[in-house]
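User: I'm curious what two different proteins look like when written out as structure tokens. Can you demonstrate?

Assistant: Sure. I'll show them one after the other, since each token string lines up with its own sequence. Here's the first protein:
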Amino acid sequence: MKFVWVLITVLSLNAFGLTYKSDNFTVEYDANVSKEIVAKLATQIEKERAIVLNYLNQSTSYHGTPIKEPLIVYISKKKRIPYQDWNTIHLPEKRVLQTFSEEVLSEKVKGTNAGLAVIHELTHVYAVSAYRKQKKNGYEDRFFDDGIAVFLQHRFGAVPEYPDFGHDLYRAVAVAATEYGQLIRLAEAENVRHSAKTGLGRKLAYLQEGAFTQFLIERFGLTTYLEIYAGADVKVKTGYSLIELEKQWATLISVFML
């Protein structure tokens, strides 16, 4: 009986795979991903973590994250897209291998939507809005959270990635909205993103969230934006309601649609 318990324990430990300790996080991975690849990934994450935190810390209204548990980066066989769950970032194993394995790197692979979106997911860890845990249309209200994540990935990502692939966010919204047939009302962006029947609707919702975030930061500054992000009244901080700001933003976008 003791032998069986020990065997089960060993098998359970093996099931968790390997870990790579970096200064500020732990990478969990399976043995089929080489330690060299994990080390390259960890180096990238360290750099991009510093970028996200230094950008946010420019503002006196940034007071850190409520996520206090140590950061974990999990190289996942199951996830098809990068995903953040509290203190854990899930990165698809296939994409990690595509990004760092010399054997599979090719022009065809480089041109696909195979990015890791590390800055996007790190932003979700280090910038949690006051609205994220609120439910909207049955989902967490991540309008502001995904907005700043898309914006920072666009602004600081080392390679072009979804949803803008390196194009100006305003222009990208204009192009996608023209193809979609209209802009999505910002109040419905999260609902469309979750329930879109086509990839275009989901992409446009992401783009609009990022572009509207850019609009607010450019117009009112990062400190005011992060105060709104933390739950401050939009009209008190900007002099305009959210609906009025959306109209002003839509007018700006329309210039790119001419």
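Here's a second, unrelated protein for contrast:
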Amino acid sequence: MTTTHATAPVRTAAESSGLGWALADSWTMTRRELARWARQPVQVVVGLVFPVMLLLMFGYLIGGGRGVDGEYVEFLVPGMLALTMAFGLESTMLAVTQDLDKGVVDRFRSMPMVSSAVLVGRSVADMLQSAAGLAVMIGVGYAIGWRWHDGPASFLGAVGLLLLFRFAMLWLGIQLALVAGRPEMVQAVQILVWPIGFLSNAFATPESMPGWLGAVVEWNPMSATATAVRELFGNPGAAGGSWAAEHSGLLAVLWPVALLAVFFPLAVRRFARLSH
């Protein structure tokens, strides 16, 4: 009697480089990252709750609104939405450095898969979590009195700009994680992201700051996104006399595209070098 054993098809190097396999590999890596959420629910909850705490703290405890015309909460919430898209990269950076540190990347390297799928899967999972966090923040903002005053097209345009900014910051974070290389270095590298958030118009208008500082703040990529979404939401704080304020919508697209043009290829190239 003879027995027949079915063997799984072996993927060749040429097949592994095709678009279909690249998408399949990226989706497999995305599912792997999403599975971490079930194993680390506390980290996910903290990521969602921390920006809400900041919003409530600045809205009720600290206050502010120097130079703001109108309700401060309507100025603050769009700024906090942009700030949330800039922060919270620690989980992404930790996941990347842990995979490097534990040799997971070496195991993926031995498989017939597209090397960039690991990073793409990580970025898709992060964007899903970011979209959930953005929805939570919008809901909390609505609950404390913030409103958008234009139609659904403007609302969706503002959300699109926020997610575009997040996508650019995500690839900046991935590149920094690949440079750091080890999980213990993430906290030190993450500190570099904080000036982007706090040297911005999230909490106060540039007009209320010293001249030189206001100029720096107005050209901050996060300030461009915050000003553009305020305009799309119809909230106070969108107007301004400088070129950067008057062209915030343009800068809110150009800054993320420029960041992606620099850090996306850098991250993919560095990861490919690590995988050889």
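A detail about the second structure: The radius of gyration is 21 Å.
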